[in-house]
Every structure is written in C-alpha cells, then in structure tokens.
Amino acid sequence: MRLGLLDLGEIDVRRTSLVVAVSVFAWVGLASTADATNCRDANGKFIKCPATTAATKCRDIKTKKFAHCGTPGTEPVPAK
What we know:
It is a single chain. This protein has one helix spanning 10-37; strands at residues 2-3, 6-7, 58-60, 66-67, 74-76. The chain is built from 1 helix and 5 strands, in the order E-E-H-E-E-E. The radius of gyration is 24 Å and the shape is flat. It folds into 2 domains: 1-49; 50-80, no CATH class.
C-alpha cells in the first residue's frame, strides 16, 4: 500500500490494526473488572451494587451559567 511518500507494507498495516484492536479490548476488559469489584462483599460474592448519587451541578447566581461548586456566588442547579 502506498500512501504519499511512505511505502507501507501490507503486513505492517495488518499488524498495526491488530495491535490497536487488542489494546481496545484490553481496556474494555479492565474497565468492566474495575466496576465489578465495587459490587462484591468481603467474601468476594456479588451483592446488589449501592446506588450512585448524581453529581451536583452548580451555576452562577447572577449569570445562571455553569460554574464550579464551592466558589463564591454559586448555587446548586434546581432539579426539574
């Protein structure tokens, strides 16, 4: 395969795509394993996961634009 001034062999393209695919599957596997550890008891058995709380969003009182919580002049965004 010839791209511009680079002459890439067919094997190099296949190897690169294989490495990318394997690394994506590895990251997905690690992410799912990390989530599963939160739903186990001390003995390692699966239990019902605790409910996650929604992140609190804050906004500026005067402009009503989103702002970092804890800074002066902010308030929590009211629930709908």
